């Protein structure tokens, strides 16, 4: 039973264009949603997060949108750069009354940005 | 400031053997979580340690056990290795109060033959 789903295994975009990575979830009790970026031979690196009480969070070229009614979030990268080429993981977390919950990850989307 | 470090980088074991993986958290972090990432999958939560105790556990058998030391470093032990245990094992650390910030190490690639 996959609680966090990334249905696109890969995405290819042209440098300078927008990259949109999508993520769906099934558990309405999640408190936070996070995006991680992973290069080969490295651990996942935190990119951006959003609380379940917000619908948008922006950090430079990265914006995450949350649609709670659809249980859907997306990561927008504008403009895309070749260095953005990596695997992107969507993750969700439930906070247990102040103690840290565990991250539940999707399977990832491999983004390729072509020069 | 060193980030999360893990050792060894790679490991090859035989079915039935036992393995110990090590993790040092980022400076100032006291909570350590372990994840297993199989090929083509996202990381899956194994367990989390805080104050030297296992606080949460994912859906992994008892063959997977762990330990946290007073300096917050941690070990993951896997007994009676199966071929299906071949994966990248990731350690993540976080400050207790900031519940969603988890910083990952580079992982240990375990191959079971």
How would you characterize this protein structure?
- The complex is a heterodimer of chains A (115) and B (113).
- Chain A has 115 residues and is mostly beta strands.
- Chain A is 0% helix and 53% strand.
- Chain A is built from no helices and eleven strands.
- Chain A has strands at residues 4-5, 10-14, 19-25, 32-38, 45-51, 56-59, 62-67, 72-77, 86-93, 103-105, 109-114.
- In chain A, the strands form two sheets. In chain A, strands 2, 4, 5, 9, 10 and 11 form a six-stranded mixed sheet that branches.
- The radius of gyration of chain A is 14 Å and the shape is globular.
- Chain A starts with a strand and ends with a strand.
- Chain B has 113 residues and is mostly beta strands.
- Chain B has no helices and eleven strands.
- Chain B has strands at residues 5-7, 10-13, 19-24, 31-37, 44-50, 53-57, 64-68, 74-78, 87-94, 103-104, 108-112.
- In chain B, the strands form two sheets. In chain B, strands 2, 4, 5, 6, 9, 10 and 11 form a seven-stranded mixed sheet that branches.
- Chain B is globular and about 40 Å long.
- The termini of chain B are far apart.
- The mean pLDDT of chain B is 93.
- At the A-B interface, strand 4, strand 5, strand 9 and strand 10 of A face strand 4, strand 5, strand 9 and strand 10 of B.
Mean pLDDT of chain B: 93
- Beta-strand fraction estimate of chain B: over 45%
Helix content of chain A: under 10%
Main beta-sheet annotation of chain A: 6 strands, mixed
SS field, number of helical segments of chain B? 0
Compute the number of strand runs of chain B. 11
Q: Please state the average pLDDT score of chain A.
A: 93
Calculate the terminal CA-CA distance of chain A, rounded to whole Å. Answer: 38 Å
In percent, how much strand structure appears in the residues of chain A? over 45%
Given the C-alpha coordinates, what overall shape of chain A results?
A: globular
Task: Write the element-wise H/E pattern of chain B from the N-terminal end onward.
Answer: EEEEEEEEEEE
Radius of gyration of chain A: 14 Å
Structural class label of chain B: mainly beta
Q: Unreliable stretches of chain A, pLDDT < 50, 5 or more residues?
A: none
CA-to-CA gap between the ends of chain B?
A: 37 Å
Helix and strand pattern of chain A: EEEEEEEEEEE
Low-confidence segments of chain B, ≥5 residues, pLDDT <50? none
Helix content of chain B: under 10%
Largest sheet of chain B: 7 strands, mixed
Instruction: Evaluate the radius of gyration of chain B.
Output: 13 Å
Please provide the count of β strands of chain A: 11
